[in-house]
Amino acid sequence: MKSLRNAPLSTVSYRMRLKHMVAIFRHEPANWLGVILVCLFTYLVVAPVISILLSAIIAHTGDEMHTHVLAGQWSRYYLIRTLASRMSTLLLWTPLVNTLAVALSVVCATLLIGVTLSWLVQRTNMAGRRWFVSALIVPFMLPSWTFALAWKTIFKNALVGGQPGWLSALGIQTPDALAYGYVPLVIILTLHFTPLVILIVGNALKRFDSQLEDCALILGTPRRTIALKIILPLMRPALLSAALLIFADCIGEFAIPYILGLPVHFNTLSTQLYRALDSRQNGVAAVLSAVIMLMGVLTLLLDVKMVREAKRFITVGGKGAIERQSNLGRWRYWAALLPFCFVLISVVIPLLTLFLSTIMLVPGRFNPSNFTLAFWIGHHLDTVAMHNGILLSHDFWRAVSNTIVIVGSASVVAGVLGLLVGYAVMRCSVHSISVFIRQVTFLPYLVPGIAFAAAFLSLFAVSHGPIPALYGTPALLIIALIAEKMPYASRSGIVAMTQLGKESEEAARIAGAGWIKRITRIIVPIQIAPLVTGIVLPFISGIKGVSLFIILAIPATDVLSTYSLRLLDYNYDQAANAVVLMIALIAWGGTALIGKITGNSLAEGLEK
Prior knowledge:
- The chain has 608 residues and is mainly α.
- 71% of the residues lie in helices and 0% in strands.
- The chain has 31 helices and no strands.
- It has helices at residues 2-6, 9-27, 29-55, 64-67, 77-83, 88-123, 129-135, 138-141, 145-155, 166-169, 176-179, 182-207, 210-218, 223-252, 255-260, 269-278, 282-309, 332-335, 337-358, 374-377, 394-427, 431-440, 443-446, 449-460, 474-498, 503-510, 515-526, 528-544, 547-552, 560-569, 573-598.
- The termini are far apart.
């Protein structure tokens, strides 16, 4: 007591705060949970990112002759080689220009088409409007490379070996520029991401305060002026947000450039990163990963800034709901042609093309004798490595098993961790811990999947202390997938816990229930729907994903997505298309399951 009395005031204050914090930690389990989660996600998220960044400035084993330093020492060799050497154009600048050209073109095309379709669905009495609300979102539910495989099936020419495309089989030779490269990449990515614009802009139009439009009409303002001077400026935050999100996704897109870009050496940053890793240029791959990460982070930070600035565009009024629609009169049926053509091109034709290709012996020949189910359930196929249809193939069912085990296990763990993250964020009394958990679980969303996979590879390819090298094991895929899908699971858990008060848990605490019992008997039963959503959503995203698995998986750990790509590499196009159809079916079914569990759907925001 005497020592405390004689201590300086600042020391006394520090000791009192420390004792207060210790007392809080002892009586609030959420604080201990927060500390555990901080340690866990620092290792799973922050450590891989730091590891890949360090790999760009540290000499690798086998490169001593080039770096002129021993392995493990600091070196600028990889930075100079990638950024400023004679090889830099091939390694970085040309793929960067290609990536930017595709991304910017896709952003412009999706905004043009998406805004038009949003206006037709939300602001007019177009025929079949309610049906199109759901149908226009379907392309976003499908794996992006579904469209690439359908495009290749139709337009594949003699440039690539193997079976010809349908047009080539009919005697129509498609030019390389149409079959591969920039043009198909832009068209396919536009079809895939236009529904995202429809969702974002459609919801913004729904919330638009119609009183502003009414006032302008009363004052005699022409409708064109209203659209350009009132509606469009107020839609600017939604448009910019959609543009930035699509731009960021295009940067990290791998499967489509892999399928349609590599045959004509049209490399993007993601495919160039894959080529660098495949040729064991790990230092160059680290620099490319850092560039992709930087672009993704800057793009999505701009999106955050746009969301904050969107508050300046809040309109004053009552409900703000749009109670009227433009009457198109006899044109309402003609107006439906545009969304009908979009659904036809982006859903019906790709899926029908893939299905027909799986039941044809020879591509593009539509006579009855050419149709078969051999690629589904056939025996003793006349191929080198594939002797049975996929449904009778051991490799296919091994991929299915790996998918269920790897993606399923990662999704379950991510969903549970997401709920615990929400609990820690909302219940932890230490603000800094809460903020760190919230931000670090969102960090993987800022890093494109191909770069995040490279980061995990750099950290776990070799042993570190008690943790062995995990490359080639299902454990690495599960851990990487858990970390990559935490943005989905954690946001689901945080939103769920935000809506749950402390009263029920406090009552259980007073009744003598321990923390584990409170979690299992109260929190989980109440939050069962968000928990299931936090599991199913990562599962859908994971089963469609390619970027993470293509870097970390080996043939023994193939999942359905990598298995289909390996079939493509061996020119087994029909079997690959069949696998993709199975993936699309599972993804669509999972999305429908989420809608059934939550009572909502992706398209619900567009419905009046």
